[in-house]
Amino acid sequence: MDEHRSCRASLVYDESLTGYDFGPEHPMNPVRVDLTVDLARHAGVLDTLSVVAAPDATEDDLVTVHDPAMIEAVMRSSRDPALTDLPRGLGGDDNPTFARMHEAARHVVGASVEAARQVCTGQVDHAANIAGGLHHAMPDRVSGFCVYNDVAVAIRWLLEHGAERVAYVDVDVHHGDGVERIFYDDPRVLTISLHETGQMLFPGTGFPAESGGPDAVGTAVNVALPPGTADAGWLRAFHAVVPPLLREFAPDVLVTQQGCDSHRDDPLAHLALSVDGQRASYLALHELAHETAGGKWVALGGGGYAVVDVVPRAWTHLLGVLAGAPLATDVATPEAWREGVLERLGVRAPSRMTDGRSAAYKDWGEGFDPDTWLDRAVQATRDATFPEHGLDPML
């Protein structure tokens, strides 16, 4: 694997993206995005890519995915957040309303569409919107901290501007249910989600049998991982499923959702990855983008609720990989960044870019053990989807 492939890359970002803010008590605190960009700046990563301001999505962009009645409900609650008995999933602990919510959510969508546009037009090889990745939003309702589904709007934009096949890989700890639902019966879009099993975690879906609609059987791929899965098991599952499917599907563009809530320190889930394991997955996706999609890669954010200890390091590694200049693991985080975190939040930030873990794993080709939950889960996914792509699930 070439960790130092030269790439043209951009980050679509401006400070107003942090206006997507459900309040100080909500797990999805936008400070995580701010801290990431600050760490990337101090670490020199922003010197290796271009930073582009995020435009607003248009109403025409939103209606490619969302019902007009749903958009109107968001707009109405944005004008008056004190409204109660709101429809379309609005309100409550997960999706509380806030002033100008429509404008903030629309801005996130615009950033993802801009990332897609830059890649599609050849302006860059890779583009990222780490404020995006809002993969739970449905056509007719908000869900799981997600108002508008920027991922789906960006994929729809790609399909409407020349891409004939788009592959979507979602590594968030939660099932990418909204994106899957929107493209469930569209054979042009392959959705692959690796997540903690829905037996244990929101949204309670994402099992191997959920494999696509009648016109797109096999294009929805779900790897439902057991709680406690750590680097070696997660990477084993990833490499047993993702590379063969991407090679066979041969997308024009690879879109990924890079939620880092699979980390062992994340408070909302039960997987046990390290920053080192997550970095290894970014390197693998980068290589697969070049191998299978002509280098065209759109990387979006997602979950991640250890807002100081995990998210900034994980996504700074992601941005370095995107630019073809990955950061070394066993290096110190910049002192100026740590001092800024302490001054701003009153907490100590991690001192190193690594968790000190190995990213080694046992390749699936060496055989699988049906007595382990992990291997049974992976084989169930291969059995459900590989034959639809002309692949032997037993090889």
TrEMBL record:
| NADP listed as a keyword | no
UniProt key word Transmembrane helix = no
Q: Which CDD domains match?
A: HDAC_AcuC_like
SUPFAM superfamilies per record:
Arginase/deacetylase
Listed under GO biological process in this entry are:
acetoin catabolic process; epigenetic regulation of gene expression
- Which keywords describe this protein according to UniProt? Acetoin catabolism
Q: Which domain of life is it from?
A: Bacteria
Q: Where is the Histone deacetylase domain?
A: 26-320
**What family does this chain come from, according to its entry?**
Belongs to the histone deacetylase family.
Task: Return the PANTHER family for the record.
Answer: HISTONE DEACETYLASE HDAC1 (PTHR10625:SF10), HISTONE DEACETYLASE HDAC1-RELATED (PTHR10625)
Q: What is this protein called?
A: Acetoin utilization protein AcuC
